[in-house]
Each structure stands twice: as structure tokens, then as C-alpha cells.
Amino acid sequence: MSKYNTADSRNDDTLVYVNGLVKRSEAKVSVLDSAVQGGDAVWEGLRVYNGKIFQLEEHLDRMFASAHVLCFKNVPKRADVKKAIFETLNANGMSNGVHIRLTLTRGLKSTSGMNPELNVYGCTLIVLPEYKGLVYGDEGLQLITSSVRRNPPYSLDSKIHHANLINNILAKIEANHAGADDAVMLDQAGFLSETNATNIFLVKKGILLTPFADSCLPGFTRAKVMDLAHKFDIVCKEKNLSITEMYTAEEMFTTGTMGALSWVKEVDGRLIGAGKKGPVTSRLQSMYNDAVDAEAVPIE
């Protein structure tokens, strides 16, 4: 389990939103919901900092785009989704140190089956807010390289932010068995793609490197780091990166909503650099925190 991704008793008596507010302990979806029948859903992870939600509009853009690609029908309006998010946070008095799992399923089916034409009742909207700190801490991640390859776009396009995550879960199982925090996943050609949960950055000779977003999700934290690098004159390049380039990097860190920027200590038993957080990583962490303070959207 990730270092800090553990249960928090403050969440026990909270309210969640499943097409309306309900006690967390009583929250359910039907056995005929598409998320149960076929993992047929899209989702986003949101962070709440000091009364504000970071990158809210970007996450909603991606959720609605993914729902469009999957031909969801009777999708709730954007204003209604935002209202549900704010209503749930306010009902719980949640304003800081909170992660929201926002899920939109294809909805309830008239009878069991994979055919989307059986979905005649509209989508199911789920807002699950939890008190949850940054899940990796700051002690340095220990990773392994997974034998499970990341899905190529000709098989399942990672640009669809879908809830069918068995590929990633299989890689995470390997990491669990190895006693590692997470697993690096390669693409079909053997180049770095991402971890089972985050995007990857390396630093070599002061240059920031990240894999092409061909088989990985081009995450919003990844995009923000690249924007900050450009803004503050840190050279950043996308390229095919091999395992050897990873092992010999001076610094390595991962990015994602759940953990922000998390530095990597070792991969497959090889120390990355000196096995300590590097100066480029530290600088980007500080700049990212400043961006959160400046750009996050207030809870209404």
C-alpha cells in the first residue's frame, strides 16, 4: 500500500453523492449499473486545498470528453456536476486536505448485459470526497518495473479516462508482491510509459525528460509541471526513454493528483542519483505549490 493511502476515521460519517446525497455507509449503486456490469464509467480525481479545488475545469473537460467518446447518453450538465461537488463538500464542511473521486457511469441498465442500448435511465454521478493527504509522503519512492505492458492506443486509448483499470491493477499487484510503492509500466516497444498510478519525469544533465504520452495518460499535474518548467527556463523534453536512462538519471519523480510531485529513491534496486531528492525536483515542488495557491477555484 502507498505510504499514506490509508483509511481516515474522519471519513466514516461523511455524506457522499450518488445521484443525490447519502450517508457514506449507505452509499450504493445497483447491480445493474454499468460500473458493476462492465467497468463502464469515466472518472476524475480532484484535490481540495484551503477552500479551493485545483484544476477543476480541466478535470471536468476531460470527464465530459471521455463520456462523449464512449457515447454516454443523458449526461448531466456541467453546472449540475459542479453543484453536486460543491454541495457534497459543503454538506461535510470539507475545505482542505481532501481528495474527491468523481465518477460518471453509463448508468442503470434495464436488464443485465453489455449492450449500451440497455442503458435507458441516464448516467449515475458519484462524488466521493475523503480526507486524504498526499499519498506518497516525502521519504522517496521505491519502484519496480512491471512485466505488465501499458495498453497501446490501438488496444485501449489512454486518453479516455475510463474506470476499466485492470491493466494498472495487475502492475500494482506486482509492486505489492515486491514490497514496492508502485510499478513502472513500459509501452509495447519497451520504453517507459508511466507507473500504475502516475506520470514519470527524469532529470539528466539538468534537463527534464518525460515519456511521450502515446500509451500513458497525459495527466494534468504532468502538464502543469511542463508549463512551470517552460515558464522558469527549465529545459523540458518529451522523448522515448529506456530503462537504462531511468536507472542512470540524476533525479526522478512522479506526478499525479493523489500525490502531486513525489521523488523516487530507487527502481529495481538501483538508486536514482544519490538516492536523495534532487534540486530540480525540489524547485518544481515549490513552484507547483505556488501554482495551487494562485490558480485553484474557490468552493462555492
What do these coordinates show?
The protein has helices at residues 34-38, 56-69, 78-92, 166-178, 220-231, 243-247, 279-295, and strands spanning 15-18, 21-23, 41-49, 52-54, 98-105, 124-131, 141-145, 182-186, 192-195, 199-204, 207-210, 236-238, 251-256, 260-267, 270-271, 297-298. Strand 3 and strand 4 (52-54) form a beta hairpin. The protein has 300 residues and is α+β, with helices and mostly antiparallel strands. It has seven helices and 16 strands. The strands form two sheets. Strands 7, 8, 9, 10, 11, 12, 13, 14 and 15 form a nine-stranded mixed beta sheet that branches. A seven-stranded antiparallel beta sheet has the order 2-1-6-5-3-4-16. The radius of gyration is 19 Å and the shape is globular.
Run of helices and strands: EEHEEHHEEEHEEEEHEHEEEHE
Low-confidence stretches: none
Strand coverage percent: 25-35%
Class from helix and strand fractions: alpha+beta
**Mean pLDDT reading:** 96
The CA-CA distance between the termini, in Å, is 34 Å
- Output the radius of gyration: 19 Å
**Helical proportion, percent range:** 25-40%
User: Total helix count?
Assistant: 7
| Overall morphology | globular
Per DSSP E runs of 2 or more residues, the count of β-strands stands at 16
Largest sheet: 9 strands, mixed
